[in-house]
């Protein structure tokens, strides 16, 4: 379907929400759901089936179709992907299938990384992180593997800004919206984009490469492994470690920015 044909269907549907036009839009954009489900499904436990993720994602697609305004300067695909991800993540969170011990260990690693970065003013090594946690490097790598298998959202997770009364911001919501009406919300989005770019730039080289290839080049973990000459499981560990570093870095950056605004 050409862009012009798609626009005509959108305009017709928004003027008169015909069920047949809605079904046509769902069928046209259904591959987006398959794409998002496939990427989010990487590393999930075996009992979480991709078919279930697709079902959850379809709800997000339908919600996106209902709420999308074709008159705004944003492509539907960009808008829909965030909605599809959100629907899948919300459903997985409601299932609460991630063991508490894994969540707890992830938070411990984030805190250790933040403390060590503040102390050394550089990304800490695996040995330093393991020592701070009181575990061996092998146990640290095992923890990364467990966390990677339980991670649903990666860069789409919510960061809570404790100093601003518990406000949260999601990276999928930082896509620029030229029609945004709330200046404070747009400021938060800008801060997140800037903080994320800076945090990624300061990652160790291999972790930065994994993040770039996965999120910007959209390679699979297996393909990234072939590029780096390592196993897929090792790429998964590098990805998880990078995400924990980014979360620790962003948490501190957003809290500092919030304090500055409130002075």
Tag the structure with descriptive keywords.
2 strands, Arc Repressor Mutant, subunit A, two-stranded antiparallel sheet, Rna Polymerase Sigma Factor, Chain: A, 263 residues, mainly alpha
Tell me what you see in this structure.
The protein has 263 residues and is mainly α. It has two domains: 3-95, Rna Polymerase Sigma Factor, Chain: A, CATH 1.10.1740.10; 100-262, Winged helix-like DNA-binding domain superfamily/Winged helix DNA-binding domain (Arc Repressor Mutant, subunit A), CATH 1.10.10. It has eleven helices and two strands. Strands 1-2 form a two-stranded antiparallel sheet. Helix 5 (100-120) crosses helix 7 and helix 9 (205-216) packs across helix 11. The longest helix is centred in the last third of the chain and has 31 residues, at 232-262. The protein starts with a helix and ends with a helix.
Layout of helices and strands, plus pairs?
Layout: H1 3-15, H2 19-40, H3 50-67, H4 76-95, H5 100-120, H6 126-133, H7 137-150, E1 158-161, E2 167-170, H8 183-201, H9 205-216, H10 221-228, H11 232-262
Antiparallel strand pairs: 1-2
In short:
This protein has eleven helices and two strands, in the order αααααααββαααα. Strand 1 and strand 2 (167-170) form a beta hairpin.
In angstroms, what separates the terminal alpha carbons? 52 Å
How much is the average pLDDT? 79
CATH class of the largest domain: Mainly Alpha
Order of helices and strands: HHHHHHHEEHHHH
Helicity range of the residues? over 70%
* CATH superfamily caption of the largest domain: Winged helix-like DNA-binding domain superfamily/Winged helix DNA-binding domain
Rg, rounded, reads 20 Å
What amount of the residues lies in strands? under 5%
CATH architecture of the largest domain: Orthogonal Bundle
Assign the CATH topology of the largest domain. Answer: Arc Repressor Mutant, subunit A
| SS class | mainly alpha
Strand sequence of the main sheet, in spatial order? Answer: 1-2
**Count of helical stretches:** 11
Could you give the count of β-strands? 2
- Globular, elongated, flat, extended or rod-shaped: what is the shape? elongated
**Biggest beta-sheet profile:** 2 strands, antiparallel
Provide the number of structural domains. 2
